[in-house]
UniProtKB/TrEMBL annotation:
InterPro entries: DUF4238. It comes from the Bacteria. This is DUF4238 domain-containing protein.
Length: 369
C-alpha cells in the first residue's frame, strides 16, 4: 500500500457503531456522525458547535506516521498495520454489539482472551486519541511525552533489539509487522518520528500475541487497567438499527470514560451498548456479569448462573448515558453522537409526555430470560 497522507486516529468501524440516525440505513461509506464540540464563549457561556461529519473525515491527523524510506526516499507509514489490527479487533466488538456474546468476557484463562483484547483496544485507542486533532483534552500532549522521550533516549538500545533480535523472536521476522519495524529503523526520518511509529507497531504486535522486542502494551495495560472488574453491561433496550426516540450512548476521542469520583468507568461500544468497569479494587476477575436493559427481550443472550439480567427504567439508563456525555465532553470537549441537538430536545419532551413509563421500574428488577 502506498503512503496515505490522512491517518485515522479512530477506527471507522467503531464510529459506525454511533452512526447518525438520519444515515442509519445508508451505505457504510455514506454514514456520518454528529460531532458536538464544546467551547467557552467570550461571555463565559458554553458554546456548542454541532457539525455533521462523514465518518471517513473524522479523527484525521495528516502525516502523523509519515516516514522516509532509506533506499527509495519515498514516504511510507504504518497504516497497513493499524488497519489490520483494527479489522482483528472489530471481530470481537461485532460479537458483543450484534450477537451479545458477553459470556466471552468471563473467560480469562487463555492468552489473548476477549477481556484482554478489549483492554488492549482501550490502551491503543487512548494513545491514538491523543493524536486526534479533534481531541481538546487539556495536557494531552503530556501523555505521550512521558513515553516517547524515554524511547528517544534509549533509541540505540531499541535499534539493537530490533535489528538483532533474540533467537526466540527471529522466526517471527518473516511477518510484515517486523519487516515494517526494520524499515522504520532504517528510515531517514527523525528519531522521534521513528520512535512514535515503533511504539504503535510494538503495541499492535503485542495485541496479536507476537513477541514484540519492546513491550509497551503490557506495561501500559497492567499499569492503567490493573484489577479490572466489569461492574455492569448497559443495554439501552433498543436494537442496533433503531432510530426511535430513545436513550443513546456517545463516544469521544478518548473512547474510555474515566470517572475519578467513584471509579465507575465506562466504555461505550455502540449507541445502544456500554461496558462499565472498576479499576484497582477487585481481587478477582468476574465470575458473572450483570446486564441492565430497558427492554431485556431485545437481548440475544439468556440469563444463567453467570449472566444476570435486570430490567431498568429509561430514567436509569439516562443516568448512565448522562455520565458518558458528562465525562466525554469534560475530558475532550468533543463527542460523536447519533443525535443532533434537536433530537435531544425531542427526547426530553418524550420523557415528559411519558412520565410514568419513563420512570418504571423504580429499581432494577432481576428477570429470567
Amino acid at each position: 500500500m502506498k503512503y496515505t497522507k490522512n491517518q485515522h486516529m479512530l477506527s471507522q468501524w467503531f464510529l459506525r457503531n454511533f452512526r447518525s440516525d438520519d444515515t442509519a440505513n445508508a451505505p457504510k461509506d455514506k454514514q456520518r456522525v454528529w460531532c458536538h464540540s464544546l467551547n467557552i464563549s467570550d461571555e463565559g457561556e458554553n458554546d456548542i458547535k454541532e457539525i455533521p461529519l462523514p465518518i471517513s473525515s473524522i479523527a484525521i491527523n495528516k502525516d502523523c506516521f509519515m516516514l522516509v524510506d532509506c533506499d527509495s526516499q519515498k514516504k511510507f507509514d504504518i497504516e497497513d498495520e493499524l488497519s489490520e489490527y483494527e479489522r482483528d479487533t472489530s471481530v470481537l466488538f461485532n460479537e458483543l454489539v450484534h450477537k451479545h456474546k458477553f459470556h466471552k468476557l468471563l473467560d480469562v484463562s487463555r492468552k489473548g482472551n476477549a477481556l484482554e483484547k478489549m483492554v488492549n483496544f482501550m490502551v491503543i485507542q487512548m494513545l491514538l486519541g491523543f493524536l486526534n486533532p479533534q481531541n481538546k483534552m487539556d495536557g494531552k500532549e503530556g501523555v505521550l511525552e512521558h513515553i516517547l522521550p524515554d524511547m528517544v533516549k534509549n533509541y540505540e538500545s531499541i535499534k539493537e533489539l530490533i535489528t538483532n533480535p533474540p533467537t526466540e523472536i527471529q522466526p517471527f521476522y518473516s511477518q510484515n509487522i517486523f519487516k515494517k519495524m526494520l524499515r522504520v529503523i532504517e528510515s531517514n526520518s527523525e528519531v522521534y518520528e521513528k520512535c512514535k511509529a515503533l511504539l504503535f507497531l510494538s503495541m499492535v504486535a503485542e495485541a496479536k500475541n507476537l513477541p514484540a522486542p519492546i513491550g509497551y502494551l503490557a506495561k501500559l495495560r497492567n499499569g492503567m487497567f490493573s484489577k479490572i472488574h466489569i461492574t455492569g453491561i448497559f443495554h439501552t433496550g433498543y436494537e442496533f438499527d433503531s432510530t426511535e426516540i430513545r436513550p443513546v450512548f456517545t463516544t469521544s476521542p478518548n473512547v474510555v470514560m474515566f470517572n475519578q469520583n467513584n471509579n465507575f468507568n465506562l466504555l461505550p461500544i455502540s449507541h445502544n451498548l456500554a461496558i462499565g468497569f472498576s479499576l484497582g479494587v477487585a481481587e478477582y476477575y468476574n465470575s458473572h456479569l450483570n446486564i441492565f436493559s430497558v427492554y431485556p427481550n431485545k437481548l440475544k443472550c439468556r440469563s444463567s448462573k453467570k449472566i444476570k439480567i435486570y430490567r431498568v427504567s429509561h430514567d436509569y439508563m439516562d443516568g448512565i448515558t448522562g455520565w458518558v456525555n458528562l465525562i466525554g465532553v469534560g475530558q475532550t470537549k468533543t463527542m460523536y453522537t447519533p443525535y443532533e441537538l434537536k433530537d435531544i430536545e425531542r427526547y426530553l419532551q418524550h420523557q415528559s409526555d411519558n412520565y410514568d413509563h419513563h420512570y418504571s421500574p423504580d429499581e432494577p428488577e432481576l428477570v429470567k430470560m
